[in-house]
Design goal:
This protein is mainly alpha-helical. It contains 15 helices and four strands. The chain has a four-stranded mixed sheet with strand order 1-2-4-3. The chain is globular, with a radius of gyration of 25 Å. The two termini are 37 Å apart.
């Protein structure tokens, strides 16, 4: 990956190797051969991260370098199973310390409330208890807006999920859900850490049979790839300090009877505390997400194990073209057409856009690198898959079997079609 040199006035040729530059979607041109100028920071193409242009440019440069370094370290290494990394150790240690702090706060609150009751100490005691409750870890719950599919409702889908889980060495999910987004995810919820698999039907509906196997392989792979976001023990590192910052953030309410100078001093202290807490939160999230990106590469490898490398690559090309494919799916939904038309329209879009896949993959690296991204850029994930040992499928899904799964989801597809038709 390149380091940007001083930008020449003529961007039609690479300043380093004289290769003709390329561009797509209005991006500033770059060299497709040596990737000169690919690391350019284009604020108009990105969501602000810190809000200051100079700071966003700086962290983009750092993220670009770190993402490239991680790719180089992993591309020639076995990704079969997760390893203990420095990022994981830091994340777990921080979470344990935060949990100990929350428990200590709760114990202090109980002691202040119960010691020599009733006494003035009850006021700070109740405050300490309230703070401990506000900062407690949240274990999540299944999305109430997604439909749960039981084995009785969708037996063919559940059989496929079990086959893929066995192929990647993952436990089967406790809950299978479908929703109306162009997405899919796997997570764990509740104190019992129940595994949830959620499939976005607009995405599922446009995938070819083996690409569906690859999607399941990737998502189920998150149950065995060591992703720190899915561990109960590491959850506090990603949420506690941000919650604390929200609690101490200055609020402009009634100040009757309070000196303006006192209120000014309190708000200055609050503002300083918010900045310290947010800085620590950003640091912990950054460290944890470095390890999370490694886990995504492993989940991609497990997708290739289940479905074969060809299907895994094809799946990621669909993800790379998400904006265009989602657009045609919405168009078909608004026209009152069902899932068969979604897939046909998506296939047409994929065929039309395929010649530019390489260029779009490179641009995704410029647009998607971030210190706060949970996923590596899609273009780098494609490179990782293409650069590793080519795999054959462990699980096969025929067109007939895939159509049988769609037949089980007729009601859900229709509900999603109505949502897509009315959404913007």
């Amino acid at each position: 990956m390149s380091t940007t040199a001083a930008a020449p006035t003529d961007l039609s040729r690479c300043a380093r190797c004289a290769t003709a530059t390329v561009t797509v979607n209005g991006a500033t041109p770059w060299c497709p051969a040596c990737e000169w100028n690919l690391d350019l920071f284009e604020p108009a193409r990105r969501t602000p991260e810190l809000g200051w242009r100079w700071a966003d440019r700086r962290i983009h440069r750092i993220a670009y370098r770190l993402t490239g370094r991680q790719f180089a370290e992993l591309v020639g290494r076995s990704l079969d199973r997760p390893r203990i990394s420095a990022a994981r150790i830091v994340t777990v240690t921080a979470s344990v310390l935060l949990l100990v702090g929350i428990v200590a706060l709760a114990v202090l609150g109980v002691w202040l409330v119960t010691y020599s009751f009733p006494a003035p100490a009850i006021v700070p005691g109740v405050a300490a208890l309230g703070l401990a409750v506000a900062l407690r870890p949240r274990f999540g719950r299944p999305d109430p807006h997604a439909d749960i599919l039981t084995p009785e409702q969708a037996p063919a889908l559940h059989r496929l999920i079990e086959q893929v889980a066995a192929a990647v060495g993952a436990p089967a999910p406790h809950i299978v859900q479908v929703e109306d987004t162009f997405n899919a995810y796997a997570t764990s919820v509740g104190l019992r850490h129940r595994r949830v698999l959620c499939l976005g039907l607009p995405l599922w509906g446009v995938l070819r049979p083996q690409e569906r196997v690859a999607l399941l392989g990737h998502e189920l792979g998150h149950f065995v790839n060591g992703d720190v976001r899915r561990s109960l023990l590491t959850q506090p590192a990603f949420t506690t300090l941000a919650s604390a910052a929200d609690l101490v953030r200055p609020h402009h309410g009634s100040t009757d009877g309070v000196s303006p100078f006192v209120m000014m001093a309190v708000r200055v202290v609050q503002a300083m505390a918010v900045r310290v807490l947010l800085a620590a939160h950003v640091l912990l999230v950054w460290v944890g997400l470095r390890d999370t990106q490694r886990a995504e590469y492993l989940a991609d490898e497990l997708a290739a194990t289940a479905a074969g490398s060809t299907a895994a690559v094809d799946l990621h090309e669909v993800i790379l073209l998400t904006d265009s494919i989602e657009l045609v799916v919405r168009r078909e939904a608004r026209a009152g057409r069902g899932v068969a038309h979604w897939r046909a329209a998506a296939d047409e879009a994929r065929t039309a856009l395929r010649p530019g896949i390489g260029v779009r993959g490179q641009l995704s690296i410029r647009d998607e690198v971030s210190l706060f991204a949970s996923h590596p850029p899609v273009g780098m994930r494609l490179r990782m898959l293409r650069g590793r040992t080519w795999r054959t499928s462990a699980v096969g899904l025929t067109e007939t079997e895939s159509a049988g799964i769609d037949a089980e989801l007729v009601k859900e597809y229709e509900r999603v079609r109505r949502v897509l038709a009315w959404s913007h």
